[in-house]
């Protein structure tokens, strides 16, 4: 069985600490949101690393808001967009439907986002 962690360095660190990553499960929550998300929005390895290292956790409702923001950006012809969800900023390739990176409020100060052509606040 393959590891759910795509970043080998993170996987090696977790393995060395003998910590097994677990998926939170909610009884009666219906289909696995991660599987649904994978069909509609990808998360790059870089973004996964940033989400893990910065301990950014987005629940199903927030991911749905991200998807809505990406859809709005696509309707306007955006290619690379900054999607703001509460205190988290995600740079998303609208064309490829891929989250490129993630930044939380603690790391937003004095940050400059380049190579974007739009911003969506959801």
Structural account:
This protein is α/β, with parallel strands linked by helices and 122 residues long. The protein has a single domain (33-121), classed as YaeB-like fold. Helix content is 38%, strand content 20%. It has helices spanning 8-16, 33-40, 45-53, 60-75, 105-108; strands at 42-43, 80-85, 88-93, 98-104, 118-121. The longest helix is centred in the middle third of the chain and has 16 residues, at 60-75. Residues 17-31 have low confidence and may be disordered.
Quick take:
The protein is α/β, with parallel strands linked by helices and 122 residues long. It has helices at residues 8-16, 33-40, 45-53, 60-75, 105-108, and strands spanning 42-43, 80-85, 88-93, 98-104, 118-121.
Question: Secondary structure elements and their pairing?
Answer:
Elements: H1 8-16, H2 33-40, E1 42-43, H3 45-53, H4 60-75, E2 80-85, E3 88-93, E4 98-104, H5 105-108, E5 118-121
Parallel strand pairs: 1-4, 2-5
Antiparallel strand pairs: 2-3, 3-4
Name a few traits of the molecule.
alpha/beta, five-stranded mixed beta sheet, YaeB-like fold, 122 residues, single chain
Separation of the first and last Cα atoms: 37 Å
Q: Strands across the major sheet, in which order?
A: 1-4-3-2-5
Order of helices and strands: HHEHHEEEHE
Q: Uncertain regions: pLDDT < 50 for 5+ in a row?
A: 17-31
If classified by CATH, what would the architecture be? 2-Layer Sandwich
């Amino acid at each position: 069985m393959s590891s759910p962690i795509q970043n080998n360095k993170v996987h090696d660190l977790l393995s060395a600490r003998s910590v097994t990553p677990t998926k939170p499960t909610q009884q009666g929550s219906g289909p696995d949101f991660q599987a649904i998300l994978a069909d509609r929005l990808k998360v790059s390895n870089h973004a996964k690393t940033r989400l893990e290292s910065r301990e950014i956790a987005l629940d199903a409702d927030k991911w749905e808001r991200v998807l809505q923001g990406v859809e709005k950006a696509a309707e306007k012809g955006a290619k690379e967009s900054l999607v703001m969800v509460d205190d988290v900023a995600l740079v998303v390739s609208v064309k490829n439907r891929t989250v490129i990176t993630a930044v939380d409020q603690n790391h937003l100060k004095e940050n400059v986002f380049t190579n974007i052509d739009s911003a969506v606040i959801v």
